[in-house]
Structure formats: structure tokens, C-alpha cells
Protein: Pyridoxamine 5'-phosphate oxidase family protein
Amino acid sequence: MASALLSFLSKPQSSNEAICGEAKTRIRIDKNSTAAVIEMPRRDNLGETMDTQKKLIDLIQDFDNSMLVTKTDDGGLDARPMAIAEATEDGHIWFVTSRNSGKIAELMLDRDVAVTMQSSNKFVTLSGECRVIDDRSKINELWKEAWKVWFPEGKNDPDITLLRVEPERGEYWDNSGLSGINYLIKAGTAYVKGERAETDEKINATVKM
Structure:
């Protein structure tokens, strides 16, 4: 690039523009100054499609805890923090709980739930159905010694049962990494122009599961 620029500047030009290399980089002389302006080619990602469902599942699998929201018998909402026992590749979320807990009674009346997850720069919401699953082999598979705080008799505690959330819809906001930095730049530019900052599917999308 440097040699092409020097060659361009040292030769008389019938045009104020030259194209260098396979990338079609343009070197243009500003008529109002002696400066050379290098214009890099625009790279469009029109052929790339964002797999938003995979992105959502990957984000879910980053979390260890969530809030599980159920409906009460009087039509209200009840939310509580839950440790995630497993988040599967198909988007299902497994929890362990006491079979005598209030949430079990609520789920017997209405299986519709919401699940939310949040960190400093990643956010996920899910809505779907939650089923109570009595499966001792699955409990053995998922068991963690830390759960003895809630189940003193260990994985054979008769009080343990499983919940499986099957999401039907989800939404994510991911402001981590380069995507987050790019959004901050866009947001700053939009603020200066008095416009609304736009996001792309790398940052925010609604997903049908």
C-alpha cells in the first residue's frame, strides 16, 4: 500500500484517483489540498445470516442462576432466584426444587412461566411452559454436592424433584465484547445527531424457540 501511494504521488496523473490491489482500495487526491485520501473498500455482510436461536442458547448456557416467575392462584406473579442445574442444546432449562414448595402448587394450576437472566452486560428473557419431572436417574446425573444445603439427605432425598422449562419464545441483549463497543459508538453518534441508536441481531433479537 505504501509503495503504491508513493508511486501514485510521484507520477503525473490524468485523473485524481487510482485503484490499488485486488481489494479495490482507492487513493484520491483532494483538489483543495496536497493531501492524499485513502478510501478503504466497504465490506458488506449481506451473505451472512445470524443464527439468533444458537446465539440465545449460547447466552443461556453462560448463566448459573436465573429468576423463575410463576403465576399465583389469584392471578398475580411470583418470582424467585433459582440455580440452573442444566441448560441443554435445545434450550431447555432444568432446576431442582422441593416437591413441597409453593411453586409446585402454582405449576399444577398454570404451567406458563417466565425466566430471566442478567449479568453486567448480558440479558435474557424466556417464556414458555414448566413441567414437574420425577426422574431419579436425571437427578443422579445433575446432582451437585452443594445442593445438600437444601437437601440434607443428598441426591436420594425424597423431597427432591425436577423442573424443566421448555421455552417457546426468548429475547436477548448482549452488550459484551466488540459488539457492545460498536453499539456504544453507534449510540454516541446517534445522540449527537439527535437520532435513535439502532441495534442488530448480534446485540438484540426476539427468537421463537
In short: The CA atoms of residues 84 and 93 lie 7 Å apart. The domain at 52-172 is CATH 2.30.110.10 (Pnp Oxidase; Chain A). Helices lie at 2-10, 52-60, 102-109, 136-142, 177-193. The chain has three domains: 2-39, 52-172, 177-208.
